[in-house]
Amino acid sequence: MAALGRAFAAGALSPVEVTRAALDRAEAIDPALNAFVSIDRAGALAAAQASEARWRAGAPLSPIDGIPTTLKDIVWVEGWSVRYGSRTTSDTPFAEDAPAVARMRAAGAVFIGLTTSPEFGWKAVTDSRAHGITRNPWNPDLTSGGSSGGAAVAAAAGAGVLHLGTDGGGSIRVPAAFCGIAGLKPTFGRVPAYPASSFGTVAHLGPMARHAADLAPMLAAMSGRDLADWSQGAGVLDALDAAPEAIWQGARVGVWSAPPCGAVDPAVAEAFVVAMRRLEDLGAILEPIALPMADRVTDIFEKHWFSGAATRLTLVPEALRGDVDPGFLEVAAAGGAMSAVDLVSAQVARAAFGTEMDRLLAQYDFVVSPGAAVVPFGAGLEVPEGSGLARWHLWAGFSFPINLSQQPAAAVPTTPTATELPTSLQIIGARGADARVLAAASAFEAAGAMP
Predict the structure, then answer these.
(1) Which residues, 6 or more positions from 180, have their beta carbon under 8 angstroms from its beta carbon?
(2) Which residues 6+ apart lie within 8 Å of 174 measured at CB?
(3) Does the pLDDT of residue 449 top 90, yes or no?
(4) pLDDT by residue (tens digit) across 188-229?
(5) Is the pTM of this model over 0.70?
(6) Which residues are catalytic?
(7) Is the distance from CB of 207 to CB of 163 less than 8 angstroms?
(8) Which residues partner with 366 through β-bridges?
C-alpha cells in the first residue's frame, strides 16, 4: 500500500486507475468465489476522483486516501443496504456510517463493496441462505473460513487493498489463516463499535490485508474514541507508534501449541515448527507455555457466545425465523436455556481468565500459536468432515480465548502445507500493544519472503 501512496504522490498512478482495477477484479472473481454481497462501482469511482484531486493538490487526507477498501456485510454504511448475511433483515439503506466506517471515509478510503458474512457473523465459516457459499481462492472446493470470509477472499484475490472485518471468536484470524493473508483482532476498544453487538465485548472490529505491513495504516484510520461506543470506556490505550525493526531480537516468546479443545492437524503442527525456526533465526527466545484455565475456557466462551446468539435471535420476528440458519437456531436455543446465574458465573470466570492472560503477557513480549488448528476443509461445512466435532468453535481453540481476554492478535501467513494449503502464525501481545504486534507480524512476514 505504501507503494501506491508514493505513486499517487508522484502522479505515476491515479486512485481512479487503481480503483477501476480493483472493481474489475472484484467483478471477475465473484462468480466463482462469491466474496461480495454488492459492488458500488459508481460510488467508488466518484470517491476515487475526489481522492485524485486531493493527491494532485498535494493534500491527501491520510496514507489510505484513495485506497480501494471493502466493508463487511455487518457494519453500517451510509446509503448501502447492509443485511448481516440474513434474509430476515431490512433492505433499507442505512442513514449513517458505523464509527469505524466513518473514520475510514474521513481518511479518504474508497469503498468498493460489501463482503460476505454468515448470518449475523455467528460462525467461523462463510455461507448463508441469503448469499450462498463463499469459496477459498486456493481451492474453491474448500471453505474460506469466517465470519469475515468474503473480506479474506477479496484480499487474497486482489479485489481491493484494505478490508474491514469483525472478530468475535476468530472471525478475522481464521479466514486470514485459511486464505493466506494477514489480519488483526485489535485490543478491545481500540476501534469503536456501534451499534453494540449482541455478542457483547467478545466482538471486535479490525483490519485485513494481503500483507501485514498494510494493517497498521488501516488500523490507525479506524481507531479512536467515539461516544457512541460506551463499552470503550474512558481509558487511553497506548499510541500506535512505530516499533523497532528488530522487534524479535531478544524477545521472550511464549509458545502455545495445544488448544483447549480440538486437535491440531499434523500439517499445521509441521508448519508451526518451521515458523518457530524462523523466529529463532530472528533472535527470539522461545519458551513453551500452557494456556491459563485451559480446562474452563471453552465453557466460558460457549456461555458468552450462545447467550449472545439467543439475544440476537430476539431481534428476528417469529414469522421469519424459518429463514434463519438452522445451526444458528440451535446455538441460540442452547443460549436461551441458560440461566442468569450461568451467564454471570461465566462472566466472573472470564474476568479471572483475562487476569491470567494479562499476567502472562506481562512476562512475555509475545505469545505465539498456529493461526488455526486445522487447514481449510470442505466449503459449506461447519466442521471438518469426519472430525466428530459438534460446532465450529471446537476447531477454533487458538482463536476464541483471545476474544475473551481482549489482547491484540495478528494472523500472518507462514509455510504452506505439502498439499499447497495456507497456514498461519498467530502473534499475541499485551493489551494496548497493537503496534508491537503489527511490527512483529510484518517482520515475520518479511523474513519469509522470497529473495
Answers:
(1) 138, 156, 413, 416, 422, 424
(2) 124, 145, 146, 371, 372, 396, 399, 411
(3) no
(4) 999 999 999 999 999 999 999 999 999 999 999 999 999 999
(5) yes
(6) 72, 147, 171
(7) yes
(8) 253
